Amino acid sequence: MHLVVTGGCGFIGSNFIRHILNSYEDVKIVNVDSLSYGSNLSNLKGIENDRRYRFVKGRINDMNLMKELVKDADAIANFAAESHVDRSIADPWPFFKSNTEGILAILEAIRVSGKNVRLVQVGTDESYGDILVGSFREDDRLNPSSPYAASKACADLLCLAYHRTYGIDVIITRCTNNFGPYQFPEKLIPKTIIRAVLNLKVPVYGSGKNVRDWIYVLDHCEALDKVLRNGKAGEVYNISGGNELTNIQVVEQILESLNKPKDLIEFVEDRPGHDIRYSLNSSKILRELGWRPKYSFKEALEHTIEWYLHNDWWWKPLADERILHPTPWKLKW
Ligand SMILES: NC(=O)c1ccc[n+]([C@@H]2O[C@H](COP(=O)([O-])OP(=O)(O)OC[C@H]3O[C@@H](n4cnc5c(N)ncnc54)[C@H](O)[C@@H]3O)[C@@H](O)[C@H]2O)c1
Questions:
Q1: 102, 127, 189, 210: least surrounded by Cβ within 10 Å?
Q2: Is 272 helix (H, G, I), strand (E, B) or coil?
Q3: What are phi and psi of 195, to 5 degrees?
Q4: Bridge-partner residues for 258, per DSSP?
Q5: Per DSSP, what are the bridge partners of residue 89?
Q6: Which residues line ligand 1 (CB under 6 A)?
Q7: What domains lie within the chain, and their CATH numbers?
Q8: Pairing state of beta strands 75-78 and 177-179?
């Protein structure tokens, strides 16, 4: 299979590339990434010289580049996005450029090629907005709260329209919050680990009662692999880790594991529009594609903490005051 992975120098994309190369001998991967701030070529350390892998620096918005790559591709997995909600509150424009205009360029490149190329659009549970009781199913309405979530919801709608109007072989996944190795230090779990290791106060938004459903990144990668190979065109698949926890529970577990005192926790001003609870029903992917998560939250969190403890060469150059800021949505980016 000739696979184009976009955004493969980011957190999930780089884990996905490793997963695919480790799982299949007969595969060729082209990784297209613009190398924006959240990316890191060292996320792919060790595989740069794999004969099955090639890196191209570029933006998915570049139609000529995407048309060129579509020529040899059997499938595209689109991870490329601006991904930090807080930054989207401070400046939404880059989010609509990459997340919405970017997917339009990929869809157009496939359409004008006339080829049958499968596209997996990696989407988010945030497109549904929050839910106080119960869980979202794939056909529930999209009701995003942040500019980030809105830009991703727009992308999903474009994909569905291109399937309906042009018959493009596109599948959308919507996944809950990921964590694991190579996650950029501005996100909750790595930020908490790093600030605690550095004996800095650990910020928690509002009351800390907001609920997220966490999934280990390798479980997400396995689900995406199944969707890519066996998913049905035009369908949406929810992917949930089944680990609903309040933010304060997550932070407390990390501090306990690192043997750090709870008084490092500092409650800070909540970000505007902060969703209260996310929850997905992922019985469809379980039933139709036989996927289920393999890792327990506790085991995966321990593994993640160990990874950050042993790889400070990776995060130290990235972890400056702005990246670790307690309220990044207040900054000018
Ligand atoms: N992290 C999560 O918890 C989560 C959950 C559900 C869905 N997702 C989705 O998964 C995808 C990957 O998320 P992530 O956490 O790995 O993000 P990330 O920020 O770590 O990686 C995104 C990558 O995309 C690249 N990129 C951004 N704009 C680009 C463009 N226009 N052209 C080419 N490359 C571009 C960046 O350089 C970066 O390497 C995103 O689409 C995100 O919306 C993430």
A1: 210
A2: coil
A3: -65, -40
A4: none
A5: none
A6: 6-7, 9-13, 32-36, 38-39, 59-61, 79-83, 98, 102, 122, 124, 152, 175, 177-178, 184
A7: 2-178+215-239 (3.40.50.720), 185-212+244-275+296-330 (3.90.25.10)
A8: unpaired
pLDDT, one tens digit per residue, over 38-87 is 999 999 999 999 999 999 999 999 999 999 999 999 999 999 999 999 99
Measured by CA distance, the residue closest to atom 32 of ligand 1 is 59
Question: What does the DSSP assignment read for 191-256?
Answer: HHHHHHHTT--EEEETTS--EEEEEEHHHHHHHHHHHHHHPPTT-EEEE----EEEHHHHHHHHHH
State yes or no: pLDDT of 125 exceeds 90: yes
Kindly report the average pLDDT of the chain as a whole number: 97
Question: How far apart are the C-alpha atoms of 126 and 176, rounded to whole Å?
Answer: 8
State the chain's maximal CA–CA distance in angstroms: 60
Backbone region of residue 187 per phi and psi (left: phi > 0; alpha: psi in -120 to 50; beta: other values): beta
Whether 69 contacts 44, CB under 8 Å: no
CB 170 within 8 A of CB 107: yes
Q: Which two tokens stand for residue 159?
A: 């994909």
Which residues are within 8 A (CB) of 93 and not within 5 positions of it... i.e. 6 or more apart?
none
Q: Which residue's CA is minimally distant from atom 35 of ligand 1?
A: 80
